[in-house]
């Protein structure tokens, strides 16, 4: 396996973590025991690969060792709620030894840190449960530190107890603001804290090894990671957009596995009984298999029990959202599920008015990722699942139906296959370079449009936001450099300008193709550059027309990640110019858009929310005074705003393009203005 990726951003990895019956996972295991001989071989292979193949050609040295320790602690305890300062000081005594250890395949330090972490989790959960039953005084003017960088580790048990007193008080206030009564709040928090401890206890050896090796590799850059067998399976499902199962996405909430979404056309949808919001409390195999309690079980392990071979039966014990006191048993036959909500989709929208009185036809194409079925491609299947093939089909349909302009919606598209990004770009240009990639040798290699001609030669608008990353930035950057299309959205995209390659660890160790899954190394091997020579790294692709949006203000860009590589540029390549966009046209479009936005009550509300968000986001702490807390929540809940943005990043259960949304309506108005300003110059002709 050597699949080249203009991969997903670190942000989207975090966002995707909570949703998952559309993934395969490994078996449920007890807490980590000790490294196996295979674990040592994997660690050794990863360390050798990092030093030999990483873009920077750096060595695993004392700096990498320091970063590994910092990243491991941050992964386990980002808000510094669990470890004591003395724990951190103790680990720091070995911070210059981790590099030497991992080069020997020794990952015992991971177990040492994690064992201590589990000990502290037990202690802190006891502290938290004690505070749940306290009658807190909400008239006091005290605060809780909410900023991870401003937080400090507790030095004494008394300081730790006070941290958790404030944490519990804050969570009680949040639930009071949601109109929950105190008895229900206490029950919910007891479940929440008890579940936290139980779920950490279920961490497997594979998960711990992935956590630790990734802490080491992300010290080189944020996107070089070790993918455990489970994570590798998940990734491949995402790329091929199909799996065997019941067709439901699940999420974990305070120890319960809750149905988040029923996938249209899947087994659960056809059965009709399982609904969004239902809780799955037990799972059995076959028509008469014993049902196992899954309350407080890790989400991935619950998913693994529900997943299975097509045609087999899974029995679910369900507590329906409509009647939580009831328990029902649903037997569902597993099927192959096609994740059609994650593939390219389209809609034609009538908008604006032509001089003859007819409406403009705008073809909108929504693309959540740049996907490719790698297994089918490797097997030589000529009909393997492909972004480019799907987009070509949709564009041909647009041509047949006489659309006036095409909108490619890349908002929340975190990337995917580099090959697909190049090939899809070729549908909109006649010929020429799409992207340049440069590896450790320093020599830039162009990736060119593989096929002459254009499938769509008319006006093009590309919608982006700060979640648009990697392959999305390759496409948007090429459209901008060729003056082929107009970029509309957030001030800039994510800024991930590096290329990763997957290396199968089993093949590395045994030098032969086999069915053993030991995970994979996703390694940054190149940096990519636009045809005009600029990297998107750290800077992203700047929009031609900027629209007000909260996503533009989230600290989720590449520049916000630890140890991100720097921006640079290389020699530009010669290429065609299409003259579909120029500075005067952009200026007029922005003026028209700004005038509409200034008159829009919806955008006025957006701007007020953005200003309040910025104000709250920059605070290092949050008030625990009920009166002040409620007043702030009435204006804006910054944490909820960010949570909703992450939810949008992974939510494919939405229309292709909601033309009743004021943001989308403004985007359509920009398209119509664009068409009018182009006049008769609506065909891309190379100059």
TrEMBL record:
It comes from the Bacteria. Transmembrane segments: none annotated. SUPFAM superfamilies: ClpP/crotonase, PDZ domain-like. One of its GO terms (biological process) is proteolysis. Residues 236-321 form the PDZ domain. One of its GO terms (cellular component) is outer membrane-bounded periplasmic space. The keyword Nuclease does not apply. Keywords: Hydrolase, Protease, Serine protease. Its EC number is 3.4.21.102. PROSITE patterns: PDZ (PS50106). Signal peptide: none annotated. InterPro entries: ClpP/crotonase-like_dom_sf (IPR029045), PDZ (IPR001478), PDZ_sf (IPR036034), Peptidase_S41A (IPR004447), Tail-specific_protease (IPR005151), Tail_Prtase_C (IPR020992), TSP_N (IPR040573). GO terms for molecular function: serine-type endopeptidase activity. Belongs to the peptidase S41A family. This is Tail-specific protease. The gene is prc.
């Amino acid at each position: 396996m050597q699949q080249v990726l203009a991969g997903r951003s670190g942000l989207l990895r975090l966002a995707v973590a909570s949703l998952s019956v559309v993934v395969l996972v490994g078996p449920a295991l007890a807490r980590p025991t000790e490294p196996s001989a295979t674990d040592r071989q994997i660690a050794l292979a990863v360390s050798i690969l990092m030093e030999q193949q990483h873009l920077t050609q750096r060595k695993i040295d004392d700096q990498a060792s320091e970063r590994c320790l910092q990243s491991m602690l941050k992964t386990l305890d980002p808000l510094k709620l669990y470890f004591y300062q003395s724990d951190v000081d103790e680990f720091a005594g070995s911070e210059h030894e981790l590099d030497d250890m991992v080069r020997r395949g020794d990952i015992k330090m991971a177990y040492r840190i994690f064992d201590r972490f589990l000990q502290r989790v037990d202690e802190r959960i006891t502290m938290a449960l004690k505070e749940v039953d306290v009658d807190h005084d909400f008239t006091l003017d005290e605060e809780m530190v909410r900023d991870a960088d401003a937080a400090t580790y507790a030095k004494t048990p008394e300081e730790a107890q006070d941290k958790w007193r404030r944490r519990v008080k804050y969570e009680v206030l949040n639930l009071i603001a949601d109109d929950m009564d105190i008895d229900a709040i206490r029950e919910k928090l007891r479940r929440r804290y008890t579940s936290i401890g139980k779920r950490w206890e279920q961490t497997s050896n594979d998960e711990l090894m992935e956590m630790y090796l990734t802490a080491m590799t992300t010290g080189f850059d944020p996107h070089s990671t070790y993918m455990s067998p489970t994570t590798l399976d998940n990734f491949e499902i995402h790329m091929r957009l199909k799996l065997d199962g019941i067709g439901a996405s699940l999420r974990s909430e305070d120890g319960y596995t809750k149905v988040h979404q029923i996938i249209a056309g899947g087994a659960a949808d056809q059965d009709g009984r399982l609904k969004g919001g239902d809780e799955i409390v037990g799972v059995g195999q076959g028509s008469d298999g014993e049902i196992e309690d899954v309350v407080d079980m890790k989400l991935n392990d619950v998913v693994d029990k529900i997943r299975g071979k097509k045609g087999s039966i899974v029995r679910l014990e369900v507590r329906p959202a409509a009647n939580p006191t009831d328990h029902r048993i649903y037997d569902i036959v597993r099927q192959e599920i096609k994740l059609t909500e994650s593939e390219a989709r389209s809609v034609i929208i009538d908008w604006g008015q032509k001089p003859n009185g007819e409406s403009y036809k705008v073809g909108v194409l929504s693309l959540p990722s740049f996907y490719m079925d790698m297994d089918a491609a490797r097997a030589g299947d000529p009909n393997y699942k492909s972004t480019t093939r799907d987009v070509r089909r949709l564009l041909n349909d647009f041509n047949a139906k006489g659309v006036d302009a095409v909108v490619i919606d890349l908002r929340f598209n975190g990337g995917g296959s580099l090959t697909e990004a190049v090939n899809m770009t070729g549908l909109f240009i006649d010929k020429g370079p799409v992207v340049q990639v440069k590896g450790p040798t320093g020599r830039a290699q162009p990736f060119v449009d593989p096929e002459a001609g254009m499938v769509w030669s008319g006006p093009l608008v590309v919608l982006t936001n700060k979640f648009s990353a990697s392959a999305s930035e390759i496409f948007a950057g090429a459209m901008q450099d060729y003056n082929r299309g107009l970029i509309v959205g957030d001030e800039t995209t994510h800024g991930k300008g590096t290329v990763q390659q997957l290396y199968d660890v089993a093949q590395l160790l045994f030098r032969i193709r086999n069915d053993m899954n030991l995970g994979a190394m996703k390694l940054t091997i190149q940096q990519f550059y636009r045809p005009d020579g600029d990297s998107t790294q750290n800077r992203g692709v700047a929009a031609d027309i900027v629209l007000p949006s909260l996503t533009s203000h989230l600290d989720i860009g590449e520049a916000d990640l630890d140890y991100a590589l720097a921006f640079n540029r290389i020699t530009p390549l010669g290429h065609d110019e299409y003259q579909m966009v120029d500075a005067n046209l952009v200026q007029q479009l922005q003026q028209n858009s700004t005038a509409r936005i200034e008159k829009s009550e919806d955008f006025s509300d957006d701007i007020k929310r953005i200003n309040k968000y910025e104000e709250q986001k920059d605070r290092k702490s949050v008030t625990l005074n009920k009166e002040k807390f409620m007043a702030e929540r009435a204006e804006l809940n910054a944490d909820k705003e960010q949570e909703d943005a992450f939810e949008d990043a992974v939510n494919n259960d939405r229309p292709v393009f909601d033309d009743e949304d004021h943001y989308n309506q403004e985007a359509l108005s920009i398209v119509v203005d664009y068409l009018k300003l182009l006049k008769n110059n609506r065909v891309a002709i190379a100059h």
